[in-house]
Amino acid sequence: xxxxxxxxxxxxxxxxxxxxxxxxxxxxxxxxxxxxxxxxxxxxxxxxxxxxxxxxxxxxxxxxxxxxxxxxxxxxxxxxxxxxxxxxxxxxxxxxxxxxxxxxxxxxxxxxxxxxxxxxxxxxxxxxxxxxxxxxxxxxxxxxx
Length: 145
Description:
Blueprint: E1 2-8, E2 11-17, E3 24-28, H1 32-35, H2 41-48, E4 52-56, H3 58-72, H4 74-91, H5 94-106, H6 124-134, H7 136-144
Parallel strand pairs: 3-4
Antiparallel strand pairs: 1-2
Helix pairs in contact: 3-4, 4-6, 5-7
């Protein structure tokens, strides 16, 4: 197997050539700079490697689908509001965070830091939901007081 590298800025694409059937695949996010039909990286590479197959990354597509669902389902908008409110409440106030930690000690519970929602970071929703769930007992008691 012979490998040659193609570098574009900080992005590096590894091209592999087999002794058997020629197969080269490029998987990337769906950005025009990567998959654009005329001047995207895939189009430029395909001019030199006609048997190149390009594909929009499955993980990127999944994240885009989740993002669409998140924005279009009313209950998910309510969950997002809750997550943002909880994060901003405790991230901006050391007093509130300290009271929450004191309450966790009284309840003999462990706490984790609340996580922000970030539009461009994969898993930020998962991390934010997970933090609320892991802190739920303490958070519920905190809200009662």
